Amino acid sequence: MFTGIVEETGKVASFVPGPQAWRLRVHAKEALKDVALGDSISVNGCCLTVARFDETGFEFDVLEETRRLTNFATLAPLSAVNLERSLRFDGKVGGHFVSGHVDGPGLIDIFEQRGHDYFLQVRGPESYGRYLVQKGSIAIDGISLTVAEVSGDTFAVWLIPHTLAVTSLRDKKVGDSVNLEFDLLGKYVEKLVAPYGKL
Fold this sequence. Notes:
Layout: E1 8-17, E2 22-27, E3 40-43, E4 46-53, E5 57-62, H1 64-69, E6 80-85, E7 104-114, E8 117-123, E9 137-140, E10 143-151, E11 154-159, H2 161-166, E12 177-182, H3 184-193
Antiparallel strand pairs: 1-2, 1-6, 2-5, 3-4, 3-6, 4-5, 7-8, 7-12, 8-11, 9-10, 9-12, 10-11
C-alpha cells in the first residue's frame, strides 16, 4: 500500500528480457533507505518487488502482463520514474490509499501551463470513467492527484510547480502514456452493490 506521495524520481539503468521475466534496474537514492529483499516499491505507480539491490539502485522482475497493463514498454535507459516506498504506519499519510495495482494506461490529450499552474487532461481506458468523481482521487504514474474535471472516460487535474519539480511528469508531453490507478473505494462499492442491481 502507498500514498501517492512520490519520494524521488529514479533513473532507469536497464530494462531487458530474461529467461523468465523482464529485469528492470533503477538507480535511486532516497527510496533505497532501509530497503530489504522482497520490499514493495512503487515504480510509476506500479507495485514491484525488490529482487536485488546494491548501493546505487534496485532490480525488479517484471512480468509480460505488467508490461501490457502499464507504460513500462516505453521505458528506456535514463527514463525518469517516480519512486515511493510502501506505506509505514508510524509515518505521515498524505495523498490517498494507492495499491500500486495499475488499472491501465491513459493518454495525455492536453498538457499546458495556465498561469502559474499546469493543466493536464488524460483520456483513460474505455468505461473507466465510472470511477471518476470531481474532487475525487486518481493516481497518475503513482502520483496522488485530485480530479478537477470529468467528461466520460476523460479527466483533468491541475498540477502545482512543485509536483512537476519532484516527479517525472515534467518529462511528459501530449500523446504520452501514463499509468492510471483509479480510486480503490469506488471499485469496492461497485463490487458490493452489483448483486443488488441498479439502486
